[in-house]
């Protein structure tokens, strides 16, 4: 027959104390814990991995569950904030591309505080200080680069004097007349000069932006009086035509 223990005690010899709870039913060995307490004697606060605040457990970093008894990782509302993989044994996150966490005093990621909750766009600083790191995307990206810049990290030139990124955030720089190159910073393809919005090509180059290799000549290569070697910009004249091999018209 079980002993009739005083309230708050239980066990074969009434030797076990129900520290933060009530024995229920009376006379049993069942200690029903108050909110936040666990253990046979209800004497372990939040499984030793947190503290009770307003009747609920607030878990230490890296622990989850109503009683902080589930190993996990740092994170906002969920392990690694949903932006990384959690090693619950080590309580450490491996962040997905575009996300990072708190750094320590040396500027390195602190594995015990890394919650993968901070957007990490290309560039140092993010977007090279020339745009906005938008974390509304699954993988944060740079948007709205300042005039003259474009690209994933706002690191590529789009010469604001001779071109414009269009559409915005596309990484495509549309050039004004005379200018070429990914960043619209090459005048007449490097083979001429811009005069009143039109390229005046150097000898041996043709095309609206001097992008076509050719030979000297009056309006046409070799003035239609020879054969053009575009690789070296030289004419071989038709027999009977009085001209030089190099820089002839």
Task: Explain what the structure shows.
The protein is mostly beta strands. It is 0% helix and 31% strand. It has no helices and 28 strands. The protein has strands spanning 9-10, 16-17, 21-23, 31-33, 37-38, 44-45, 50-53, 56-59, 63-64, 70-71, 84-87, 92-95, 99-100, 118-119, 132-134, 141-143, 149-150, 156-157, 163-165, 173-175, 179-180, 186-187, 192-195, 198-201, 205-206, 212-213, 226-229, 234-237. The strands form 14 sheets. It has a two-stranded antiparallel sheet. It starts with 8 loop residues before the first strand and ends in a 12-residue tail after the last strand.
What would you call the structural class?
Answer: mainly beta
Mean pLDDT: 92
Number of helices: 0
* Spatial ordering of strands, largest sheet: 1-2
| Shape call | rod-shaped
Number of distinct beta strands: 28
Largest sheet: 2 strands, antiparallel
What is the radius of gyration?
A: 38 Å
Beta-strand content? 25-35%
The helix fraction, in percent, is under 10%
Give the SSE layout:
Elements: E1 9-10, E2 16-17, E3 21-23, E4 31-33, E5 37-38, E6 44-45, E7 50-53, E8 56-59, E9 63-64, E10 70-71, E11 84-87, E12 92-95, E13 99-100, E14 118-119, E15 132-134, E16 141-143, E17 149-150, E18 156-157, E19 163-165, E20 173-175, E21 179-180, E22 186-187, E23 192-195, E24 198-201, E25 205-206, E26 212-213, E27 226-229, E28 234-237
Antiparallel strand pairs: 1-2, 3-4, 5-6, 7-8, 9-10, 11-12, 13-14, 15-16, 17-18, 19-20, 21-22, 23-24, 25-26, 27-28
């Amino acid at each position: 027959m079980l002993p009739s223990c005083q309230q708050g005690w239980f066990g074969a010899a009434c030797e076990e104390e129900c520290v933060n709870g009530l024995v229920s039913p009376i006379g049993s060995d069942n200690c029903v814990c108050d909110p936040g307490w666990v253990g046979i004697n209800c004497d372990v606060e939040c499984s030793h991995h947190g503290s009770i605040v307003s009747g609920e457990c607030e878990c230490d970093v890296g622990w989850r569950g109503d009683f902080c008894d589930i190993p996990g990782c740092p994170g906002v509302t969920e392990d690694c904030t949903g932006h990384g993989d959690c090693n619950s044994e080590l309580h450490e996150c491996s962040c997905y591309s575009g996300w990072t966490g708190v750094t320590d005093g040396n500027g390195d990621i602190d594995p015990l505080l890394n919650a993968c909750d901070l957007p990490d766009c290309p560039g140092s600083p993010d977007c090279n200080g020339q745009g906005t790191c938008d974390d509304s995307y699954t993988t944060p990206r740079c948007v709205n680069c300042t005039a003259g810049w474009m690209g994933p990290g706002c690191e590529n030139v789009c010469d604001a004097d001779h071109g414009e990124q269009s559409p915005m955030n596309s990484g495509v720089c549309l050039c004004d007349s005379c200018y070429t190159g990914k960043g619209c910073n090459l005048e007449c393809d490097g083979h001429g000069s811009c005069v009143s919005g039109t390229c005046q090509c150097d000898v041996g180059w043709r095309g609206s932006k001097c992008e076509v290799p050719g030979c000297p000549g009056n309006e046409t290569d070799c003035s239609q009086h020879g054969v053009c070697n575009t690789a070296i910009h030289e004419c071989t004249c038709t027999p009977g035509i009085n001209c030089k091999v190099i820089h002839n018209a």
